[in-house]
Design goal:
The protein has twelve helices and no strands. The chain has 240 residues and is mainly α. It has a domain of 130 residues.
Length: 240
């Protein structure tokens, strides 16, 4: 009877080649938007960049603008790349407009006079924006209506008394979520992989570990955590 191989032996036998690892690293740098690192890595490994550095930098500028709350600037840059990106993706376009509305409200809430009884008048620009940019989409689906109502509720409650499902909209991780969605949309528009292969491999690895533990396979050792965090923004914060 052949001896059973240990988990470590199986891992060693399944190790990818150096060229495969280099490709996965390059794919990650390009997909996630690290142009300088991608160019340097290409020089060191003699791998051809799968995307022009300028294309990567465009996505980085858009990502940085969204992370900083400059949504209008980001939308302008997206349309400069290709207006069809937002024209063909209504949920993403709505989420960008919703985020822009949130940023308008945030500026008002952060103002030193936000405790003033007359501060309701300060919300007028946000209300007009909501009526012109978001309200026209509401009849097309309840999901849009719910998202708009939740966002408008930011103007009703004091910051320290907001329900959690409303307060979560002010969390900056929402900017990151929209930025990731935009990045994927641009990559899809360019016919490129819309997600780094590394992320897919991590999910596959987590699924395999979970399946092995459910099957009570004794050879799987404890302590295989990847230490991945989770976003504090719920899936229902926006329409996608």
């Amino acid at each position: 009877m052949r001896p059973t191989k240990s988990f470590e032996q199986k891992v060693d036998e399944a190790k990818p080649s150096k060229s495969e690892i280099n490709w996965i690293v390059m794919d990650y740098l390009v997909s996630e938007g690290y142009p300088a690192a991608a160019e340097k890595f290409a020089e060191e490994t003699n791998i051809k960049l799968p995307s022009a550095p300028q294309d990567i930098r465009e996505r980085v500028l858009i990502r940085n603008a969204l992370h900083a709350g400059r949504v209008e600037e980001a939308v302008y840059m997206i349309n400069e790349i290709d207006p069809q990106i937002l024209d063909d993706n209504h949920p993403l376009h709505f989420n960008l407009m919703q985020l822009q509305l949130i940023e308008l409200i945030r500026q008002i809430l952060d103002h030193p006079d936000n405790a003033n009884p007359q501060r309701a008048f300060a919300f007028e620009p946000a209300i007009v924006f909501a009526q012109e940019q978001l309200a026209p989409r509401v009849p097309t689906g309840k999901i849009y209506q719910d998202a708009l109502e939740r966002t408008m509720a930011l103007m009703i409650f004091p910051v320290d008394k907001m329900p959690s499902e409303v307060a979560v909209l002010l969390h900056t991780s929402l900017r990151s979520k929209v930025a990731s969605d935009v990045n994927r949309a641009i990559l899809q528009n360019r016919g490129q992989r819309d997600e780094a292969k590394l992320r897919q491999l991590v999910r596959a690895r987590l699924w395999a570990e979970s399946a092995a533990r459910e099957a009570k396979i004794d050879s799987v050792p404890a302590g295989l955590s990847l230490g991945l965090g989770t976003s504090s923004v719920g899936d229902d914060a926006m329409v996608t």
